[in-house]
Amino acid sequence: MNVTLSINGRYHTLDIDPRTSLLDACRDHLALTGSKKGCDHGQCGACTMLVNGRRINSCLTLAVMHENDTITTVEGLGTAENLHPMQAAFVEHDGYQCGYCTPGQIVSAVGMLGEIGDGWPSHVTKDIKTGTELSGDEIRERMSGNLCRCSAYPNIVDAIETAAGKTKEPA
Amino acid sequence: MDETRIQDRSGAGEPSIAELGERPPTHERAIKGGVHTKRIHDSGVKHVSGAARYVDDEPELPGTLQIYIAMSEKAHARIVSLDVSKVRDVPGVACVLTANDIPGQNDYSPVFGDDPIFPQTSGPEALVQYVGQPIFAVAAETIDLARRAAKLAIVEYEELPAAITIEQALAAAGEAGHDLLDPHEMRIGDVDAALEGAPHRVLGRVAVGGQDHFYLEGQIAYSIPLEDGDVLVRSSTQHPSEVQHNVAKMLGVPDHAVTVEVRRMGGGFGGKESQPALFAAVTALAAVKTGRPVKCRLDRDDDMEMTGKRHEVTINYAVGFSGNGRIAAGDFSHLVRCGYSRDLSAAIADRAMFHADNAYSLPAARILSRRLKTHTVSNTAFRGFGGPQGMVGIERVMDRIAFETGIDPLDVRKVNLYPSFDSDRAPGVTPYHMPVTDSIIAELVEELEVTSGYRARREAIRQFNAQSPVLKKGLALTPVKFGISFTTSHLNQAGALVHVYKDGSVHLNHGGTEMGQGLFVKVAQVVAEEFQIDIEKVKITATTTAKVPNTSATAASSGSDLNGMAAQAAARTIKNRLIDYACGRYHVPEEQVVFAANRVLIGNEEKRFADLVGEAYLARISLSSTGFYATPDIHYDRESASGQPFYYFAYGAACSEVVIDMLTGEYKLLRADILHDCGTSLNPAIDRGQIEGGFIQGMGWLTMEELWWDDKGRLKTHAPSTYKIPTANDRPDDLRIAIWEKGENRSDTIYRSKAVGEPPFMLAISVFSALTDAVIAAGDGKAFPDLDAPATPERVLKAVEGVRG
């Protein structure tokens, strides 16, 4: 069936099987291969995209469900010549090793900062009435859905703190 | 990049040398990206922008087929019949592959010839030996179609008795009269007499679980058929040469008919050493049969069920020691669960033995290793390659001696460490008769003891535990000594290929593969340093068997040591040709040709590197060279279990503090201090990443990653939903990592650096020992816990209940 998707500021009309996941639509039909397929189960986070600014496991959602949504993939955040601050912070802090989880980490981190900004509480939020403060604990808790087998976590957390304006010198 | 003035057939006639030097050299003090600098990973910007291409990201050629591999549902069974006719009839299925379709050898094993690509469909070899073993493959227009078509196959099994656990494997080995591989023994001194004569003796056992690699990029191969029946395979592999050889032998063609290429992997950790050959072989077979490009990209669950893991090992120990904790003799036996085939288990089980002493000098020792067959997936290489399992044994012994003597565990460890290379004492000798002549472990441990505040924290923890009824803390400081070299000596060789183009830019290729560890940037740093040019002038290129042949796996932490040396040799050859040219052209002695940052000083003149290269090209000097390196001075005689299998040792130590909840068994790593020896680090930023990542991955292995098979041999932890690897939340809140500043390799390695891929993994044993310490505290120090690994909350709770009686 035909579906029109708004991805990274451009409209794409695709003729796809209605069972095609948003991830496969991007990877297999639009050559947007930045988002990775790590587990295809919504458990590793490598496929994370932003849908209307909220992070989502794109392997667990069908492309046809997102006709009227605004979708952002890692390619839409910034390019090599013009990196998004989160991407730049990951480079500054070596927030990766093999790089396979990195696009998902970065997109997830951008979405996560939005959630904190909007006051969404998490499991480690001390007092949900007084709002949510950005802290290492909050970042680690909220990023725990993005697996990194190289365990570059210390640098990932540092990079996110830097991008969030909490300046931290690279180790 | 500078433009070159040199054009072929430009019509401008022969360019003169004077024309080349029209721009003066710049005068930087140092090049960008030389050795010992914190250069970022070469793919960093591509990683963060999604532009880094992995095999699955390369555009697929038109007509590409997708492969689904059908797997055995039985742990051990005879295949009575296999009917795939209905699968073949499904529209969109291009071919179905069984053992009958293989023109050459039906085997993808690295050494022993016992890993069939598919089982035979009839006769005595129509046998499956683990749940998940490939039986046949379907190549179809889409993966969904291939998967659905495969379900139409009819497989009739006749089940046979299966050994799943180590206990069952022991019983089966007893019945069969042999193990999967012959036992091996290392021995030094008179162990029985020393045990007999020791003032104290204890016996014990510790079981250590396996580990799934969980590389975020699963196994994948993409084969493109070429003319003459040749094939190009893009494989996510640490060992392109072995994949090449296995594909060729399966097709029944010479190695030269197969080219294997890999730009980067999304993680390897050992899981892409021998395993990728299967997927490469299946795609190559389908590509040759259909004439179409073929991809096989494993689903995560299929990957976890089908591919090998870290070896589970049970270690029995008997140790004799004196009142101050000094060991007189250690007797270890390793029961190694190898799975159904031999794979790399001989070398892995050997490396467990090579590290049964860890950093401790044992006056008398015996290490017996039995390699057992189970009807489970064939276990394989994983970061540390058996070394970590060996070390857990002796570290458990240290904790046990401390418990028995009442001496602080750190003091027991210290009294047993190998003497320093510069001490008055004779060097210690390993159980394989190799003198340890480069030990710095005593000094390193001493330094970490101070910087981690060990003694004060020990006292604080004692006080905390005395007044805390439910939460108990534990502390441990453990050392690591890890042998560097492939213990199979001939593998310690590497090749490189360096081209200098006439514009002064450089193309670098070598046999090592990039899996995130930063090998490519380190080797590029070496080449940049050699030519004294900025690292941006060095192009890093994909590993391919067509450029550098007969390579060893990027494994055993050896990547930078071997390939760095080979690339340096290649660069030196070209550099020497440039020097010879300059000496002849400008009539200066050799010592007056000096490569400085991006320029070359020739007598009183200086010119840009690119201009000297241009001149040399016009003078018809070859600007391309291979380089080769073979590690010197290593040998090992397996018959006598003695020799010098390692070129040197890498050292490190970690101090971990944990807190456990006695009511639930849950725990938290509160703080970890790490001091690690990278020699003179080639790239401290990259090395630090390896230290952090290795430690956390090791912690995952020893604490939360549990592989669980049911009694039918079905792996029930085959996805991240049931198999838990560390997340951002599992790293300790307080993680303090330092690279040992005094580090310098006593062996002549590339810029005196040390290998760093595997050694830090074993720093995580400090977490396991700290948990043991906390459980002892939970029992008020009255009993020593039988805590096995992984020390999941369930196991910790059970151990707590055990020590509380």
UniProtKB/TrEMBL annotation, chain B:
GO terms assigned for molecular function: 2 iron, 2 sulfur cluster binding; iron ion binding; molybdenum ion binding; molybdopterin cofactor binding; oxidoreductase activity
Protein source organism: Fulvimarina pelagi HTCC2506
Residue ranges constituting the Aldehyde oxidase/xanthine dehydrogenase a/b hammerhead domain according to the UniProt record: 49-161
Residue stretches spanning the membrane: none
Pfam families membership: Ald_Xan_dh_C, MoCoBD_1, MoCoBD_2
Family: Belongs to the xanthine dehydrogenase family.
Cofactor(s) named in the record: [2Fe-2S] cluster; Mo-molybdopterin; FAD; Mo-molybdopterin cytosine dinucleotide
Xref: InterPro entries: Ald_Oxase/Xan_DH_a/b, Ald_Oxase/Xan_DH_a/b_sf, Ald_Oxase/xanthine_DH-like, AldOxase/xan_DH_MoCoBD1, AldOxase/xan_DH_MoCoBD2, AldOxase/xan_DH_Mopterin-bd_sf, OxRdtase_Mopterin_BS, Xanthine_DH_Mopterin-bd_su
Protein name: Xanthine dehydrogenase, C-terminal subunit
Xref: PROSITE patterns: MOLYBDOPTERIN_EUK (PS00559)
Region annotation (Disordered) ranges: 1-24
Keyword Metal-binding found: yes
Alphabetical list of SMART domains matching this protein: Ald_Xan_dh_C
Keywords: 2Fe-2S, Iron, Iron-sulfur, Metal-binding, Molybdenum, Oxidoreductase
Keyword Metal-binding on entry: yes
